[in-house]
Amino acid sequence: MKNVALKYVGENGDEAEVIPSKFIPLTFADLFPSNDLFQIQAKVEAGDATINGEVIDKDSTITVPIKFNSEMSVYAIVIDGWLPITFRNSKWLVPDRNLISSIIQINSNNLNDKNKATKWWLDFIKESDITINPMLYALEGNTRKKPSYKEFCTSFDKAVEKLSIYFPKGRIISYKSEMFYSAGYSILEEMADKQNDEINFLLETAPLVLTPYSNRQIGKIQQEIDEIAIKYDIIGKTFLYFLVISCLYERNDNKYFKAARKVLKPTSRYTEVDAYNTISDINALNIFIQLWSIFKQPYPICTRDEGLVAFWSGLNPIKISSRNKKIDIEFTFNECLFPSLNTEQRHQLADSIKEKIQSN
Length: 360
Known about the structure:
Order of helices and strands: EEEEEEEEEEHHEHHEHHHHHHEHEEH
Structural class: alpha+beta
Strand order of the largest sheet: 9-8-13-10-11-12
Number of strands: 15
């Protein structure tokens, strides 16, 4: 997908112009560059790059340091990590409710600092040939609980209307008949079947990870979390379990970004509304994975949620496959999400969880 051209001028006057065929996904660490200088890597086909006017006649991979004129605020979640929304390697966009809500505010000239940054990024693609699916806006609803069928339809239509205003040349997916609305709502009903157990799991475990524990205490708390997860059939079925135990194995310093905590937002008075919001965020990842497993092409989830992007990138999925309608995901237990553990301890934790999944 060649829809972006880059021009780089070095301090010594050298000039490079490239039309990337694909941008290489960024990692957890890339979310926090020094001096706001992002190292963007891209694959370039023969003939699509020049250095000082000389055409490069072979395929290559380039690294371009870029300092953007606005803070990084709109991310595309992709299979191997994340990318700035402009570099997402797809004509598709699947924006989450938070991003669409921001677009609605921008349409109404509500340009607070965060919306200004959002608008700066979206303006790059505003006039481009893109296809947008607004289903996440409708699936989450605006009442912080499962929307009714009528609320789902109303939210979907509102998102289509507002996105069409902002992206006049875009193709906004709309439902033309009751059959399509019913199919979309069936996704919500399928997720709702397990939602009560997920909410109860978070209500019981979020208070357990409010504060750091000593090494002697952590084992006991881990066991308690595991027992709750088994009770609600959570282990191996959702990312929520990893979200909670990642909070348990944080370091008690500011060296690492606490991605899981940013998504879970645990408090001493954690409520069903808090749990619902967390589950909605994780469901966006679930839908992303399902879309990829079905269509085998990227449908990037676009969001302003740095915590969710960091959590996904920290999981660092190395293999996603599907068989007999079952999706298998292999990911790494690395220091991004489990910074208080050394390499051997992370392997032990991973092996322990695998055993629980197999025996459950």
